């Protein structure tokens, strides 16, 4: 809970992440961290200051072997520690999928609940930064299919602070995906060291009545689209899931019941995306609410070009989202007129 006095301070996205890690390390001596780019802090945690405070035995740069980094984390987590591993870029994280998928996710099940795997893995995504095909993957849909994992996707400094604390305190392995382009974003965050956002709780970013926009790791683009839509008389409700596993489908269904229309924007490739899963759940459980087909605005099933102009048309953009919503609303309104 936030302090009743509502005291806050302004920090960047990366500072919010660093503060959450530091506060949890002060709170619990069994929280330890290692990974790539720890000292510079660009994709890490501002490791230089953490090393100064906590020492090299709790914060360090290991040899670059993603599989080994997570393998060691699985082992020390079984001994009661709460390791945090920074894998920096989603493409690099695939080297660690053996340990994440075959070990971390299965510990509790294989030991009949007698052991846990309270580790946190950070995976950054270089979307919209001209990272090219080797630095721009968005691999969360692959891990959504793995039982035993939790997956969160912070999108602002405030929810980054709250979700990181929840992830570190959780007894399940939690994968934290975020976008590097958010690193310098500033926002007021609560001072309360126990401010935690529960994993599995979506956020209604903007209320609306005509269409539900679900934003999967593209909150800025979706919010800007909603503002553009308001200028042409379309009221869009924007929902940021924040957690993909578990997913707060009830909040999405409640919104769709109100608006009757659903558009999902997702930075992942279209096939087997989080957007596809959300669309399937709403079709199964909320079909009676829908006034129009569900639409998805995703990245096409292509590798990401290094060219900035080409990259800019691959990922979901406000313009793409606006076009999809306008087409959907106009078509459904026209159909309802015909039916009447």
From TrEMBL:
Its cofactor is thiamine diphosphate. One of its GO terms (molecular function) is oxidoreductase activity. It comes from the Bacteria. InterPro entries: THDP-binding, Transketo_C/PFOR_II, Transketolase-like_Pyr-bd, Transketolase_C. It holds the Pfam family Transket_pyr. Keywords: Oxidoreductase, Thiamine pyrophosphate. Residues 11-184 form the Transketolase-like pyrimidine-binding domain. SUPFAM superfamilies: Thiamin diphosphate-binding fold (THDP-binding), TK C-terminal domain-like. The keyword Plastid does not apply. This is Alpha-ketoacid dehydrogenase subunit beta. It comes from Amycolatopsis pithecellobii.
């Amino acid at each position: 809970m936030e302090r009743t006095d509502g005291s806050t301070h302004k920090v960047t996205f990366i500072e919010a992440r660093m503060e959450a890690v530091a506060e949890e390390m002060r709170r619990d001596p069994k929280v330890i961290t290692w990974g790539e780019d720890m000292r510079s802090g660009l994709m890490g945690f501002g490791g230089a200051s953490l090393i100064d405070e906590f020492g090299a035995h709790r914060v360090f740069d290991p040899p670059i072997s993603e599989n080994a980094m997570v393998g060691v984390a699985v082992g020390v987590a079984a001994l009661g520690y709460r390791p945090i591993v920074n894998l920096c870029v989603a493409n690099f994280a695939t080297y660690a999928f053996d340990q994440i998928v075959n070990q971390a996710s299965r510990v509790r099940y294989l030991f009949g609940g007698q052991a846990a795997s309270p580790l946190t893995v950070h995976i950054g995504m270089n979307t919209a930064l001209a990272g090219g095909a080797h630095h721009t993957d968005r691999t969360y849909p692959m891990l959504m299919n793995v039982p035993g994992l939790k997956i969160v996707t912070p999108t602002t400094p405030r929810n980054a602070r709250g979700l990181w604390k929840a992830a570190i305190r959780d007894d399940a392995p939690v994968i934290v995906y975020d976008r590097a382009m958010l690193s310098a974003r500033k926002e007021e965050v609560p001072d309360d060291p126990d401010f935690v956002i529960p994993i599995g709780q979506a956020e209604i970013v903007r209320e609306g009545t005509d269409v539900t926009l679900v934003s999967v790791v593209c909150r800025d683009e979706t919010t800007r689209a909603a503002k553009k839509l308001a200028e042409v008389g379309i009221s869009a409700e924007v929902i940021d899931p924040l957690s993909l596993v578990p997913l707060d489908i009830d909040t999405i269904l409640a919104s769709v019941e109100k608006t009757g229309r659903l558009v999902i924007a997702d930075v992942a490739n279209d096939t087997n995306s989080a957007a596809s899963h959300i669309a399937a759940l709403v079709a199964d459980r909320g079909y009676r609410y829908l006034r129009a087909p569900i639409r998805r605005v995703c990245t096409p099933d292509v590798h990401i070009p290094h060219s900035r102009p080409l990259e800019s048309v691959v990922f979901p953009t406000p313009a793409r989202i606006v076009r999809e919503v306008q087409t959907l609303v106009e078509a459904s309104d026209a159909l309802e007129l015909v039916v009447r």
